[in-house]
Design goal:
globular; 4-stranded antiparallel sheet; 32 strands; Methylamine Dehydrogenase, Chain H; mainly beta; 349 residues; 0% helix
């Protein structure tokens, strides 16, 4: 889109202890994508063809531009090592592209160039380093989907079953997290605008179903901006209205059935969130969300209030299990959190 559980009570856990550090990115670009490979290796991306990389946990960041991409806006980055990463540029027509490097940015290979002037790609996700999927706004009433099965070539998916888009429905290229994958075949994406729905596939995009959600929608600036699953059945969606970020509306919901149904979460404050995720997917507690007004965390959705970590503008979020997280934002902002281990005793999710 053009722009920018509930858990049974049988548990006892401590709040998320955390330390945060604002890192020196050596960039003033608006950063929209971030991908943590490990506690040491992290990539980020943003405006004017910019990408950034650290291999020492953020003590030093190296910022550079992809040659020939200086006019592009890299809204998503997916990395697999200090050398290997994919970049997705969002924009109308040929501004939507996918690049890959296998030598830490010394060279970049243009893998996909969108030739359809109506097309606009928003985000991508990978099951592994060679199998990925990318999402674009609807063209002729259907969302655009690309897939790679070798990490080199991207081809349009033509699902046998893909529910049509509602007029005025699209996806948000806000944080690189409007689509997510899990295990070796599950994929979900969230929408906004005139509808806020979640599309789900269990066979790598060959067939799809769609579910309504209670997330606020109806305007071109509102809907689902981020989706995250910690396993095949437990997931989160977050969003709101980026033009009115302080509105505490229906901005956060959860599922306990793989995305078939969604329920609003009561945790507050529910300001606009552009990215959300689980600090450690192997542990059913610990959430972190960022947006244009604040970064918040909680050890469980059972709480009625977030722990407000920072009052600041951050766009995207990525995790390096077990306890590290990075967020990026405007003017080259890069924030690192190191979370203390959560003490979980009993209960299940």
């Amino acid at each position: 889109m053009r722009l920018p559980c509930l858990l049974p009570a049988l548990l006892s856990l401590c709040c998320l202890a955390q330390e945060h550090t604002l890192q020196d990115s050596h960039s003033t670009e608006n950063l929209r994508g971030v991908s943590a490979v490990s506690a040491k290796v992290v990539w980020a991306s943003g405006t004017h063809g910019t990408y950034l990389r650290t291999s020492d946990g953020g003590k030093t960041w190296v910022a550079a531009q992809v040659p020939g991409a200086e006019a592009l806006d890299f809204r998503d980055v997916e990395a697999f090592s200090r050398d290997e990463a994919y970049l997705l540029a969002a924009g109308p027509g040929e501004q939507s592209r996918i690049y890959k490097t296998s030598d830490a940015g010394k060279t970049w290979n243009l893998q996909f160039l969108n030739h359809d002037p109506k097309g606009f790609y928003d985000c991508m996700a990978f099951w592994d380093r060679t199998h990925g999927i990318a999402l674009g706004d609807p063209v002729n009433g259907k969302f655009e989907l690309l897939a790679t099965e070798d990490g080199m070539h991207w081809n349009a998916l033509t699902p046998t079953m893909l529910p049509p888009a509602i007029d005025g429905e699209g996806a948000f290229a806000a944080s690189g997290t409007c689509i997510t994958v899990q295990d070796d075949a599950n994929v979900w994406f969230g929408t906004g605008g005139k509808a806020a729905r979640v599309f789900r596939s269990q066979d790598r995009g060959r067939t799809w179903t769609v579910a309504e959600t209670p997330i606020v929608h109806g305007t071109e600036s509102s809907g689902i901006f981020s989706i995250s699953f910690r396993d095949a059945i437990h997931g989160l969606i977050a969003g709101g209205d980026y033009r009115h970020p302080e509105k505490g509306e229906a901005n956060l919901a959860y599922t306990e059935d793989g995305g078939v149904t969604w329920k609003l979460a009561g945790i507050h404050p529910q300001s606009y969130f552009s990215a959300i995720g689980y600090v450690d997917p192997s542990v059913p507690r610990g959430l972190l969300a960022v947006g244009s007004t604040r970064a918040v965390s909680s050890d469980t959705l059972l709480r009625d209030k977030w722990m407000v970590l920072l009052e600041t503008n951050l766009n995207a979020l990525s995790f390096a299990p077990p306890w590290d997280a990075w967020a990026v934002g405007a003017k080259g902002a890069i924030m690192h959190w190191s979370f203390g281990q959560m003490n979980v005793r009993g209960g299940k999710n």
